[in-house]
Design brief:
- The complex is a heterodimer of chains A (283) and B (252).
- Chain A is of the alpha/beta class.
- Chain A has 2 domains: 4-73 and 155-282, P-loop containing nucleotide triphosphate hydrolases (Rossmann fold, 3-Layer(aba) Sandwich); 81-151, no CATH class.
- Chain A is built from 8 helices and 10 strands.
- In chain A, the strands form 2 sheets. In chain A, strands 6-7-8-3-9-10 form a 6-stranded mixed β-sheet, sandwiched between helices. A 4-stranded antiparallel β-sheet of chain A has the order 2-1-4-5, covered by helices on one side.
- In chain A, strand 1 (4-13) and strand 2 (16-26) form a beta hairpin.
- Chain B is an all-alpha fold and 252 residues long.
- Chain B has 2 domains: 1-32; 38-245, Orthogonal Bundle (MetI-like fold).
- Chain B contains 10 helices and no strands.
- Chain B has helices spanning 2-28, 40-44, 47-85, 87-101, 109-115, 119-144, 148-156, 161-195, 204-213, 217-245.
- In chain B, helix 5 (109-115) packs across helix 6 (119-144).
- The mean pLDDT of chain B is 93.
- The chains are: A alpha/beta (283), B mainly alpha (252).
- At the A-B interface, strand 6 and helix 2 of A face helix 7 and helix 8 of B.
Amino acid sequence: MLDVSMNNLQFGYDKELVLSGVDYKVKAGDFVCLLGQSGCGKSTLLRLIGGLEKSSPQELLVGGRPVDGPSLDRAMVFQDYGLFPWMTAGDNIEIALKQKYRDWDKHQRKAKALEWVRNLGLDEDLYDKYPMNLSGGQRQRFATARAFALDAPLLLMDEPFGALDAVTKALLQDTVLELWENGKENRKTIFFVTHSVEEALLLATDILVLGQAPSKIIYTHSFTEATKPRRETLFTDPAILDLRNHLTKIINDEINERASRLKEEKANGDPGKTSFFKRKKAV
Amino acid sequence: MGNFLKSYWGVIAIGSFVLIGYILLTDVFGVLSPFLFPSIFDVVILFPKYSDQLFTGLKSSLLLLTTAYVLAAICGIALGTLIGLKSGIRKNVTPYINAFSAIPVPLLTPYAINLFPSFKAASIFLIWLAAFWVILGTTIGAVMSIDKRYLETASTLELPKMEKLFRIILPAASPSILVGCSIALTLSFMMLAVAEMFGATSGMAYFVQYYSDFAKFDVVMLGFLFTASVLVLIMYIFDMIKHRILHWTINN
């Protein structure tokens, strides 16, 4: 369990500002879904929390400490599975466990890995197969099993189910939700990037919508245990349907606004990039 | 045997076609000069007589080749990985690599003979150099072009440096490195022939060179066939090793 504080967080690649003034506090054990149009900085925010990008020390705190590079306390699941293709699916989990539990022998690591393979609904026979011999869903389950097996208090998932078919996606959503809920008082804090409003409604305790780049949070919504949508009520509860329409409208408005701006900039011959340094100065 | 024929029927067919063609052009129609292109049957029966020389030559050539190639592979992969990973080093050494690797290795033969204490050391150096540049270049490129996702995943797992090198970086770069090793092996054979043409007293290329000086082209042909068979065998073993290492790639 780790809380995350974003204090007027700013970040840019080269001279292009991606995030500007992201301000939010995530409580330990929350399931946060990040929504927004492509290129708005959702994945960048996740990479900053994961330590794959460097932020200013006081602008981003995880567990009260500045993020200083990647850590086993912050497990990541990527959209493209993130398994090493030259290792068996089982070895992909074991190599992670070897770092986390340095005093464990191979048998202990394998037992732990197999436990999570089963937890993710995978057949043990797949353990010794190479990623290229697995389906997309199976690969994503192994990647998720590795992240859960690490027992990291913070889990960062970047569109993990984006490339899966509807049935596999639904099964994996339920599995992740169940594993998170089973954590009870030691629930992991999860950041989950998605393009799907329905997915965010189903999984999140907190939904954050990011505006167009250089982006900040333009809308937030938090659920309580009682109001949190379930799959059965996702498309029937009027309050949830209203919220879904509202979220969709916010994102679509942002998309339309951006499209109009790009058209205008094209007509004026303006490249439309905001200088990071200029922006910093302005702030 | 059935499986072997099934796997290699194309290779066998092409070989048979070439052999029949040669027999037709020499023994049957006599189109080719029998002095330069002797009958294949006359060549094959020479094998028992020259087998001792051929196998002594093979031993001598393999010693040169193996020593030089293994050293080149170790140096090329180790230095290539270092240069590929460290942009600072890469920036400073790339102009020198480009300059020195462009010098044709056979042109360095006089220097090698003068600088090294023996023919063997000079030969090993020349073969080593020819293989080294290729392996170095491909390893640098391979390490530089490793998919960023693998390195990022390794970072999130906090893998120690050595584990990251041997379990992530080298396997990820291995497809391109092995392409370089394969080209380097072919180049090594060519350099072996050059190296054995000065000061050698035995060797596969020396055998061919020696008998061509006496215009004994039937024995020269035997030397060609023997050398070609050895090369095919070595490349086959190399390919088996390569497929074993790259078993995880889609094309395997």
